[in-house]
Amino acid sequence: MTSRGERTEVSVIESSFTVFNPATGQAIAEVPDHGQADIERAIAASDEAYGAWSGATAYRRAGLLRDAYALMMERKEVLAKVMTEEQGKPLKAARNEVQYAADFFLWYAEEARRVYGATIPAPRADQRFIVSHQPIGVVGAITPWNYPSSMITRKVAPALAAGCTIVLKPAEQTPLSAIEVFKILDDVGFPDGVANLVTTSDPGPVGRAFTTDPRIRKLTFTGSTEVGRMLGEAAGRSLKRVSMELGGHAPFVVFPDADPVHAAKGASLVKFLNTGQACISPNRIYVHRSIVDEFTSVLADRVGKLVAGNGLEEGVSIGPLVDAPALEKVERQVVDAVNKGAELVTGGSRLTEEGLNDGYFYAPTVLSEVDTGMAIYREETFGPIAPIIPFDDEASVLELANDTSYGLAAYVYTNDLSTAMRMFEGLRFGIIGINDINPTAAAAPFGGMGDSGLGREGGREGLAEYLETKLGGFSI
Ligand code: ADP
User: Fold this and answer.
1) What is the CA radius of gyration of the chain?
2) d(CA 46, CA 215)
3) CA of residue 312 to ligand 1 center, whole Å
4) Is there a single domain that holds both residue 270 and residue 216?
5) What does the pLDDT read at residue 151?
6) Domain tally for the chain?
7) Residue 447 lies in a domain
8) Residue 203: CB within 6 Å of ligand 1?
9) Residue of 202, 211, 227 to mutate, ligand 1, most atoms within 8 A of C-beta
10) Are residues 178 and 267 in the same domain?
């Protein structure tokens, strides 16, 4: 079961589940299908390890996290290949993700030694106040399939840096990257029980354990808003600390003073990254009417050059969708939009030619003349569809962009400083990219408002999620 591979005492593994390659539909591995008893053992191991680990010096925790960074760098190629096979992204993108994932180990190795407290001037002459931060306890973590290693290190690294122990359940589609990450933790010598992995085809019992077991003090979840809301409600009953990184519906706004060619290039890069399967993927592309034709034609031209295929093959620039339901959702949204008057500029169908028919491939697609009555305008797409909506003025586009219950990422292209500042301040989203399609890094707080979640990951804020604040009042 859990993390520690061979070193953990585990029951004989009774069952397993199959991992498939979404590019070929072929089975690539069998992994342990852990059940209730394994979950219980993982939580018990974490709880037992907590005392010693929370008492270890920050220097020791930092050292192990640095070692994890170095080993992950050494194994970058292996990790990238595993990720491409189970998740589908092109190998180059997988390498980038492994780097991003490793960055969290290094960043939080550094931050571990900077969990500073404070002294506060007290109201009485004979009184002293000190504030210190302590780890919150055992953490339960659940991660998604779209970024199979960075979503794990983004939780594990700050939790371990803070002095927490952790039990993590990866998505059932992508457990192999998780197994590789936890092997690294094992190989660099994190003590037994500090980091535990539970792989399972049935997430329900893990969710129940993480939200009800009194030994779990914090739940951290990345996934859909629907599941996050359900887990958050359950965790609320026992007043567990909760962080949620949920869905998004990112606006991408191109003002008339922006260079439409540069903006279209940015849109093509960020929209089709990971085949559109990212919570920060632009889902509504608003382009000023005066430049919409040029923008659309440049975007369509670039999109037309994307090469879909098995990410392990040279020259492939876009992978498959993760599974059949994902493909069906994309198909449904495109048909709905076209039936309601959207113009299909490029793409618009499944890819079934030689070599692609066994995977879940959909042609990179550009739709223009999208409007508010279409499903694609309201729902998160999580697929390779770029819907373009023309707009006429700043006030109306700001209102349209904010007209969603989600609030994760937003993008703005403008060369006018005042427009940029007004949009930065006016958009109700947690991450705003101004002429920037990649406003993410281990050092920067990532997270959303509204239905996009609670809390932040990365940066100093990401460490605070795993810490309690303690006030000491001393009478002297
Ligand atoms: P997606 O639709 O992107 O797969 P999900 O929210 O269903 O998003 O999945 C994200 C993570 O949540 C995965 O690890 C999945 O196994 C887990 N998950 C799904 N349903 C539950 C549940 N009822 N309890 C706990 N975890 C769940």
Assistant:
1) 23
2) 9
3) 27
4) no
5) 98
6) 2
7) no
8) yes
9) 227
10) no
| Pairing, β 406-407 against β 343-346 | unpaired
Question: Which residue is associated with the tokens 């180990």?
Answer: 105
Which pLDDT band holds residue 4 (cuts at 50, 70, 90)? Answer: very low
Closest residue (by CA) to atom 2 of ligand 1?
Answer: 224
364 Cβ closer than 6 Å to some ligand 1 atom: no
Cβ(185)–Cβ(69) under 8 Å? Answer: no
Please give the Cα distance from 371 to 340 (Å, whole number).
Answer: 9
Is residue 285 assigned to a domain?
A: yes
The interaxial angle of helices 292-304 and 260-271, nearest 10 deg, is: 40
Task: Give the atom of ligand 1 at the shortest distance from the alpha carbon of 226.
Answer: 6
Single-letter amino acid, residue 40: E
Mutation pick for ligand 1 pocket among 87, 151, 224, 279 (CB with most ligand atoms within 8 Å): 224
- What tokens does 393 get? 């003025």
Name the residue range of residue 458's domain: 4-246+452-475
On average, the pLDDT of the chain sits at 96
Please tell me the distance between residue 223's alpha carbon and the centre of ligand 1 in angstroms: 6
Query: How many A from CA of 197 to the centre of ligand 1?
Result: 16
> Domain for residue 40, yes or no?
yes
238 and 310 both lie in a single domain:
no
Q: How far is the CA of 306 from the centre of ligand 1 (A)?
A: 30
For the beta carbon of residue 475, count every other beta carbon within 10 angstroms. Answer: 8
Q: At what angle do helices 175-188 and 150-162 cross, to 10 degrees?
A: 30
Looking at the fold, whether 124 and 200 belong to one and the same domain comes out as yes
Percentage of the chain lying above the pLDDT 70 cut? 97
Tens-digit pLDDT profile for residues 224-247 = 999 999 999 999 999 999 999 999
Predicted TM-score (pTM) of the model is: 0.96
Percent helix, percent strand, percent coil in the chain, to nearest 5: 40, 20, 35
Q: 458 C-alpha to center of ligand 1: Å?
A: 21
Query: Looking at the predicted structure, is the pLDDT value of residue 1 above 80?
Result: no
Q: Where does the pLDDT of residue 354 fall: very low under 50, low under 70, confident under 90, or very high at 90 and above?
A: confident
Name the residue at shortest CA distance from atom 22 of ligand 1: 204
| Of 281, 262, 276, residue with least CA distance to 306 | 276
Q: Which atom of ligand 1 is closest in space to residue 172's alpha carbon?
A: 16
Query: What mean pLDDT is predicted for residues 435-464?
Result: 97
Q: Residue 453: CB within 6 Å of ligand 1?
A: no
How confident is the model over 208-212, as a mean pLDDT? Answer: 98
Please state, as a whole number, how many other Cβ atoms lie within 10 Å of the Cβ of residue 45. Answer: 24
Does residue 234's CB lie within 6 angstroms of at least one atom of ligand 1? no
Helix (H) or strand (E) holding 30: strand 27-32
**Catalytically active residues, by annotation:** 245, 279
